[in-house]
Design goal:
It is built from nine helices and six strands. It has a six-stranded mixed β-sheet. By secondary structure, it is an alpha/beta fold. Helix 4 packs antiparallel against helix 5. The N and C termini lie far apart (84 Å). The longest helix is centred in the N-terminal third of the chain and has 23 residues, at 21-43. The protein has three domains: 4-43; 65-118; 130-249, Glutaredoxin. The chain has helices spanning 4-17, 21-43, 65-82, 86-99, 106-118, 154-170, 189-198, 211-215, 243-249; strands at 130-133, 144-148, 176-181, 205-207, 223-228, 231-236.
């Protein structure tokens, strides 16, 4: 920005070479505007210095007494969840998050809390696109175990065949069961059928478009849930299932 002295010098030169009154008036007006702008700039408050970034809170050291206490609370919450005591499970997670907010197990506790929030949701039908193997329904009063999986998932390849033993043992005693896949990552129905055949899996398998995964809060596979009397009564990982839990649902 020109200083006033620069404008004044320019005005003097123009006035010397041109006696036009209109030109002289315009130069005078310009000098006044520049002076006003400079005055505002001088009176403007200085910019506040940027606030210093707060240092990140360090995580609770692994193996420390606090870390162990947090793990114990998470274990108690998981055990309560498996027994269907969701109120106790939620209370344990709340205590964990309040006392040990930087514990390594916090992310796992958040996932468990999300699963607990699914329990109690109403489910009136299996929203599937097609049946790849067998078929079934959510029979009223009958516990239905749903397993969400994908053929490309290495953990699913381990857990899904194991559940054939669960189906064989409990189906005759009243357990309904269905495997649910979206056939994502370019997998086809032939890929699924080949996996079922190779692993001698006989329980019903269906393809869904994503609505069921959303309803059951499934963001990763494998995942499992149990529906009984028209509502979700359990949500977790299939590896958490045991005979005591299944017997209780039946």
């Amino acid at each position: 920005m020109f200083r006033i002295t620069h404008i004044a010098a320019l005005g003097a030169l123009l006035s010397a070479g041109c006696a036009d009154p209109a030109t002289a008036k315009r130069i005078d007006d310009l000098e006044k505007k520049v002076a006003e702008l400079e005055q505002k700039a001088e009176n403007a408050p200085a910019a506040a210095p940027a606030a210093a970034a707060k240092p990140a809170t360090p995580a609770t050291p692994a193996g420390s007494p606090e870390d162990q206490a947090a793990m114990n609370l998470y274990r108690e919450a998981s055990e309560a969840s498996q027994k269907g005591d969701n109120d106790t499970a939620k209370a344990k997670i709340d205590e964990l998050k309040q006392k040990y907010p930087t514990a390594r197990v916090i992310s796992a506790a958040d996932r468990l809390l999300e699963q607990l929030s699914i329990v109690g949701k109403p489910v009136d039908k299996l929203d599937v696109d097609t049946w790849i193997q067998g078929d079934t329904t959510l029979a009223n009063g009958k516990a239905t175990l749903l397993v969400f999986w994908e053929v490309w998932c290495p953990h699913c390849k381990r857990e899904v065949p194991k559940l054939e033993e669960t189906y064989t043992k409990w189906h005759g005693k009243g357990l309904n069961m269905v495997g649910v896949t979206k056939m994502s990552r370019g997998k086809t129905e032939d890929d699924v059928k080949s996996f079922l055949s190779e692993n001698k899996i006989t329980y019903p398998i269906a393809k869904e478009g994503g609505a069921m995964s959303a309803l059951f809060g499934v963001s990763g596979v494998p995942a499992a849930a149990v529906v009984k009397d028209g509502k979700i009564v359990w949500r977790g990982h299939p590896a958490q299932l045991n005979d005591e839990m299944i017997s209780g649902w039946l």
